[in-house]
Amino acid sequence: MNEAIAYLLEEHRAARRVLDTARRALAPFDPVRLKRALLFLKYMMDRVHHAEEEDGLFAALLEHASGSDRTQVEEMMAQHGKGHAHLKTAEHLLGEVEAGSETAGAALAGAVADYVDFTLRHMRFEEQAVFPLAERVLPGSQAAQLLEQFARTRALLISARDYQLYLDFAQDPGRVETMVAGPAPQPPEDAATRVIQSGRILHTTGAHRTVLFAQPHKGGATLNHYLVIDGPSGILIHPGSRAHHPQLKAGVQQHLENGRLDYLFTTGVDLDPAGLSSWLMDTDADLLTAASELPSLLGLESERCHPVPEEGGILALGRSDLAILPAPFLPDPRGHQLYDPLSKTLYTGELASTSHGPAQLSDGLGEHAAVIKEEHQRRVPSQAAVQAWLRMVRGLDVRIVAPRRGPIYLGEGVVAELWALLEATPGGADRLRERLELPTRPFAPGAKPNAG
Q1: Pairing of strands 408-410, 400-403
Q2: Residue-by-residue DSSP string for 351-419
Q3: Ordered structural domains, the chain, with CATH
Q4: Quick one: 339 exposed, middle or buried, by C-beta within 10 A (0-12, 13-18, 19+)?
Q5: Which of the 8 DSSP states describes residue 239?
Q6: Which end of the chain is more exposed for a tag (fewer CB within 10 A), N or C?
Q7: With contact defined as beta carbons under 8 Å apart, do 231 and 240 qualify?
Q8: What are the pLDDT digits (tens) for 361-385?
Q9: DSSP structural state of residue 320
Q10: Strand ranges for 29-131 from DSSP E
């Protein structure tokens, strides 16, 4: 584990040098040096470093930690969103100063100081609490996996050339010529980036259309993001993580053309606060979520975060109406789904999701049936709850089932096949009698299971 922590600590050291440069650039005021310091902090730390932590270290810790340890990790993720907000404020005020504002200078100095102090406290807590937690609860063998995940995340967000330019700048931030203050560094052009950005049209009816953005994920699975557009208005379902925010945002903007993104919609409360913060800071969209505590968690304006009622409701999008359905078992008791009557699509969230398999369009369950059944038994608590849900959705004309992960199912035949499978599959609580037994087998942590 030491190697993975050492990698993150090296990026912390680079950030401290640049944070010091940002503070020093305030007096005497040096706008060129300050702008380049903020560029480093925006693209290397806020975009790349935080995504490395969230997709790698924090994701691993959330699988192993519990109680107060888990709360610490979740707080660090929320602080990434708050730091992003501080940095955006400093950038905005610097732009006003450069445009000739005579009143923005004092506010800029305060915003930069707030951001520097906040980030230094954040890194110090990670180093004193979160990194030692990783050493304590993660197996040493996971260090290599984390380093590989860091590399995958970094490759999605920035080219090797740009990454090295920023590292060179951090080594000597006083020499402003070591980094060109030009456009945002671009991620490498690879197949995954092209898939996320281009999107795939699932349905079109006049000015109403649905676009799928399939994000390759570990283990061969895909995370599905859906953009529903009606005239000039759009809603993004499953906004996703900070790591893929730039690519997904580019794809959304391409399909919206001159329209606007009105809403972000989450099907449950198992979400990525830092990713949502990126969307809320970079767009004017409002967030629709069951997680009413998000505004205070992220330090965002509460008027843009709208708690969805437990019973759901009818949402106007352009000239069409979408139905927000209650789904209090997927897997959070505050979960929701979305139904689009024009495309006849039901966005089911975790229901019918699979942890492996591409986002292919399928007119039959085939080999996916066994995987859906296995994950359904693991995630859904009660067969009775699903049967009640089925009584509700069978009153809808559903032709497309669009889960959060894995294949999308098209056609009345496969929808009926899926409903029958879910209706007959017991949930977790239904299987307690066969699962709750006193243990008889030895447990040796780290030991490989015996063959056979």
Answers
A1: antiparallel
A2: TT--SSB---EESS-TTHHHHHHHHHHHH---HHHHHHHHHHHTTS---EEEESBS-EEESHHHHHHHH
A3: 2-171 (1.20.120.520), 192-433 (3.60.15.10)
A4: buried
A5: -
A6: C
A7: no
A8: 788 888 888 888 888 777 777 788 8
A9: E
A10: none
